[in-house]
Structures are given as C-alpha cells and as structure tokens.
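Board notes (copied after class):
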Amino acid sequence: MMAPPHTQKLFEKRAEKNILRYVIIALPDFDRGYKQISKKTGVPVPTIQRIVKRYHPYGQIKDAPRSGRPTLLSQDNLEAIEQAVENNPRSFVNELTR
C-alpha cells in the first residue's frame, strides 16, 4: 500500500534535505568555503556552519529528535485507518455525526 500523497511528499522532502546536507558536508573537503557552498546550494552560511560543525563530532546529519509527545499511531495504523475509510466512508461519517 502506498503512503498518502501528503505523507509521500514529506518523505521526498526529507530525502532531498538529507542529500543536500551530504553535499554540504562533502564540499568543504574540496576546499570550498562556506560562502561558495552557500552560493552553490542556496543555503544560508550559518546553516552550513551548523551542519558541518554538527557532523564532525557526531558523524550524523539528521536532526535531533524533537521534544514533546510522540505520535500515538504508527504509520501502519494510519494506513489501515485510511484503507478502512476508503472502503466504507459512510460508516465513518455516520460514526462521526452521532
């Protein structure tokens, strides 16, 4: 089963963001300055500095986990709910309007 369109776009956006971060990490190794990297990628210089500085001690480019309550439903549960609504939308409308 395929993810909903808005979720699919979110995954694609994250993938593009991670690829861009890998490019930013690699360019200083080729004697590129932060300003040159900024012009090439369109990412502000402070953001580039933060990405590079975070990569060296931790070896990762991902964002840190966010604070707050985690979601209660897993991706599998969300997809099951979506499938159930698609199969029988009237029962869900009736349930919501009681």
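Comment from the instructor: Helices lie at 5-26, 34-41, 45-58, 75-87, 89-96. The CA atoms of residues 28 and 54 lie 14 Å apart.
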